[in-house]
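Supplementary Methods, section 5.1.

A reviewer requested that the exact input to the structure prediction be made available. We therefore reproduce it here, unchanged from the version used in the analyses.
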Amino acid sequence: MIEMKDVSKWYGSFQVLTDCTTQVAKGEVVVVCGPSGSGKSTLIKTVNGLEPFQKGQILVDGVSVGDAKTNLSKLRARIGMVFQNFELFPHLSIRQNLTIGQVKVLGRSEDEATEKGLKYLDRVGLIAQKDKFPGQLSGGQQQRVAIARALSMDPIAMLFDEPTSALDPEMINEVLDVMVGLAQEGMTMMVVTHEMGFARKVANRVVFMDRGHIVEDCTKDEFFGAPRSERARDFLAKIITH
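The structure derived from this sequence is encoded cell-by-cell as follows.
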C-alpha cells in the first residue's frame, strides 16, 4: 500500500531524512518511533506530500507521490491524516467539520456526507456531541472527532502523527482505544507515537529512527525482545523504565 525507497530530504543544508526505505502492506500497522528530532514526523508527512522530498521514491497504492504530474489533493483525499493538534475548524460545528471535506473534495451531497460523518462520529462514541463546537470538547474528544473526520473520507490508509502527544494523560486511552479498534478491523496504518503499549498491542512492525536514518525495521517481537542496534536498546531502556 505504501512503499518508500531511498527517501532523502533536506532543509537547506541540513539533511533531515537519509535514504529511508520501508513499506506498509495492506492491513498492516507500522509504528514509527525514536527520539525527538529523529525525523519521524517528517517521514510520515512525506507519504501524502505534506513535506516534499528531494531524493528517492514514494508510492501509495501505485501512485508516485513525488511525480510532478500526480494530483496531490486527490491523493490526500484517499489517505487519512490525524495530527498532534486535531486541526479541526473552530468556527464549524462537529457535524460541519465531518461533512465539509466530503462535500468539497469528494463531491458528496450534504445528506450523504452527514450520514457518513455521523456514522463515524457514533463509531468513536461521540454522536451526542454533533452540534457542539470543537472548543466545547476535551482534547481527547477533539482527537476522536479528527479520526472520525478522516474515516468519513473512506481512506485506503491512515497516517497518525503523534496523535496523543498534546493530550492530558487521562485522555490518551480514549484515543488509543479507537486506534486499536481500527487496527483490529484491518485498517492500513502508519503511526508515529511514543506509546509503546499501543505498539506492543497492535503493531505488525516497528520502524525505529535516529538522526534521519531508519535504524531498525522489524517485527514488534524482534524490536521489544532483542533490538539489534545499541541506539534502539538505549531508547527502549529509557522509555520503558520510567
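Residues 169-184 form the longest helix (16 residues). These observations are discussed further in the main text.
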